[in-house]
């Protein structure tokens, strides 16, 4: 199957009032820069990068520059050595000045890379999770770029990690019957009034979720504390509650407010400060233990993830395949996280469409713990095969590809 | 003086063969995304962001989105509280998703911010260095965004640092007579053959430079070692020689090659590995001491600089005002570097045009050591007021503004 042309789309979606709001991103749209790889068959590879609307056109333009190298390529041949292909695209000698490996050009790379994996899975007529499980450890590692990981995860170590988990896969394939557990992110968006949070919490529990998230980071910490107590009271002591500050606090604020929020026994505190601040997160993680720090949705690449892991500055790794360089870099970071004993609980800029595949592979193929995957329902109507959640569990996708197709 | 409209230009410059080449950026053009603030007077504020050609249009488009807030603003009123203005632009709630504070949108912010300072200086009819020296410590700090610096440099500490250096300014104003020392970056571009390096080294010394740089990072470390020995032999033991790997090495390679390169007694080794790798640089700095590590041209923002300084991962801070968020973030990072005892030796994506002003202020206003400033002559013909180097010294610019005007 040959890639014959590349089509790029800027798709933006209005959201109902308050939906998606957090302490930092107060008035979001959701949007995708979409890379479509047309082929000499009816099959099209679709890759997404997520934005909040503004500037999606910049990512689209960058997709055009990066994807040009893919025209004429045969998909099996392309993916057989994709790690090197990835590095060529990520390190294009002049374009990389605009990053490197971050910002607009790296978001664009995510879309391009994701389209390649989607096309690959579709060409083999299997869902992405199945494709990844079907690859040998060496074949999988061939799709990754492990450069700058030499001191923490060599190619041999990556292959060994995957090989080690081959014989025990059956112990973990139960997830293919139960589905992968979800958690509800949408009970407590920042701009929602208290009453709505209480209602949403009850609704989430009625729908089978026992894990959910509240947005914090208010100018008045009293608001955060009140709302956190409210959701704990409504959900009960058995529920798992995560708090998400979306980078709003500086370090002294984070230390002050996290101590107060400990009263509701949160499962984690997410993005307590600036996403680039490895040493700040390290200080917070040390100070708030045994409470845990989660971060990753704004960490652009594997090198910064490496630093976070080395510094023990994150207890949960929230890498997002539509923020880092797509499925390839997601898997690279998942391998390092596994090597270093940190669970991967992705952020889902893709609304879980691609990540429902990736967490299945992380669990079965790498032995990552089956924790839960963020669930955000607001773009359901726009996907051709929206993720199906039943009783709080993502149902295992069976359609070929990465579930990224959007309706026209 | 009111900003009446904003004009944006994409200016790219071809370079002679080999010029600008390094181990990573093998075939550069030099280019600027230019933000021009037109006013109700003949004066125009010009701000630059530097790229290697590819994708300059993306930066230009982002300038359009960011600068729209400036239309109609009066320059003195704008700059009186520019720190908050800066933060509003840097943290635009949806656009920041594309960063935050990195990549295309942050380069665009650099151009916008630099245009504001240029216009401010021109409106007061003084060169930028003079403008900065004329501000009171509080007025200067009002132009900075110190968020996420709370644990290392508060507003009061920043003002105190500037106040402390007020009474001793006269001890440092000698630089206004001598000029600011330069070093020659262009003797040893990566693609230059050995003979050319020898010739250039001799020429540099004839022109009064006793400090110069060689590009390293060859696939064959033997080439680096041979060329480093050659330049040391040509320049003599008294010369100051810097080696620049432009991110090419992974950590084990860096440790191996740096040890060999120590033989020529380099003044620093620059960008030995991936620019985001704080802990990697920390390991290198520890391993190669007493040799020094310089980095910064690809560090996008103050938070990552903070981490580098906290980790003692850089011995020289090479912040670049056309990479970070312009003059404002440059000064913020310079203040923190001063507070933490690390010299600032800027990278000059602007070819030294703006930085010749900034190092004068860093020295006289903050007490930073008068070391030397990178000199790159290749865009001289395109600037209206190109930096003047005499006997190896930047002559103090006297024309109002930041010396950023480009010929049409």
In short, what is this structure?
The structure is a homodimer of 408-residue chains. With 408 residues, chain A is α/β, with parallel strands linked by helices. In chain A, 39% of the residues lie in helices and 15% in strands.
Question: What does this entry look like structurally?
Answer:
The structure is a homodimer of 408-residue chains. By secondary structure, chain A is an alpha/beta fold. Chain A folds into two domains: 2-125, Enolase-like, domain 1 (2-Layer Sandwich); 170-394, Enolase-like C-terminal domain (TIM Barrel, Alpha-Beta Barrel), CATH 3.20.20.120. Chain A is built from 15 helices and twelve strands. In chain A, the strands form two sheets. In chain A, strands 4, 5, 6, 7, 8, 9, 10, 11 and 12 form a nine-stranded mixed β-sheet that branches. Chain A has a three-stranded antiparallel β-sheet with strand order 1-2-3. In chain A, strand 4 (180-188), helix 9 and strand 5 (211-215) form a beta-alpha-beta unit. In chain A, helix 5 runs parallel beside helix 15 (355-366), helix 9 (194-206) runs parallel beside helix 10 and helix 11 packs parallel to helix 12. The radius of gyration of chain A is 20 Å and the shape is globular. The model of chain A has no long low-confidence stretch (mean pLDDT 97). The interface between A and B is large, with 61 and 61 residues.
């Amino acid at each position: 199957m040959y890639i014959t042309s590349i089509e790029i789309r800027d798709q933006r979606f209005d959201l109902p009032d308050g939906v998606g709001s957090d302490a930092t991103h107060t008035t979001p749209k959701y949007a995708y820069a979409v890379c479509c790889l047309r082929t000499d068959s009816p099959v099209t590879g679709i890759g997404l990068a997520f934005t909040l609307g503004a500037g999606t056109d910049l990512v689209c333009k960058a997709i055009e520059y990066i994807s040009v190298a893919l025209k004429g390529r045969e998909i099996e041949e392309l993916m057989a050595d994709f790690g090197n292909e990835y590095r060529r695209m990520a390190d294009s000698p002049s374009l990389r000045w605009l990053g490197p490996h971050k910002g607009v050009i790296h978001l664009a790379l995510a879309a391009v890379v994701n389209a390649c994996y989607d096309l690959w899975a579709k060409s083999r007529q299997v869902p992405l999770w199945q494709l990844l499980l079907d690859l040998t450890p060496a074949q999988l590692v061939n799709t990754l770029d492990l450069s700058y990981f030499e001191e923490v995860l060599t190619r041999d170590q990556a292959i060994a990690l995957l090989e080690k988990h081959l014989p025990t896969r059956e112990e973990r394939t139960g997830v293919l019957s139960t589905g992968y557990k979800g958690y509800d992110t949408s009970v407590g968006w920042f701009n929602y009034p208290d009453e709505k949070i209480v209602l949403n919490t009850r609704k989430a529990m009625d729908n089978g979720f026992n894990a959910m998230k509240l947005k914090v980071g208010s100018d008045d910490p009293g608001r955060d504390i009140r709302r956190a107590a409210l959701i704990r009271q409504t959900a009960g002591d058995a529920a798992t509650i995560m708090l998400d500050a979306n980078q709003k606090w500086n370090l002294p604020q984070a230390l002050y407010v996290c101590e107060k929020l400990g009263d509701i026994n949160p499962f984690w505190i997410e993005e307590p400060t600036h996403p680039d601040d490895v040493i700040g997160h390290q200080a917070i993680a040390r100070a708030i233990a045994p409470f845990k720090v989660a971060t990753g949705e704004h960490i652009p690449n594997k090198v910064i993830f490496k630093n976070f892991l080395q510094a023990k500055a994150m207890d949960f790794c929230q890498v997002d395949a539509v923020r880092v360089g797509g499925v390839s870099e997601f898997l690279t970071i998942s391998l390092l996280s596994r090597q270093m004993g940190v669970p991967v609980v992705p952020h889902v800029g893709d609304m879980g469409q691609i990540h429902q595949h990736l967490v299945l592979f992380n669990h079965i193929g790498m032995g990552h713990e089956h924790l839960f995957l963020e669930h955000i329902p607001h773009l359901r109507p726009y996907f051709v095969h929206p993720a199906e959640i039943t009783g709080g569990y993502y149902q295992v996708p069976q359609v070929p590809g990465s579930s990224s197709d959007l309706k026209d």
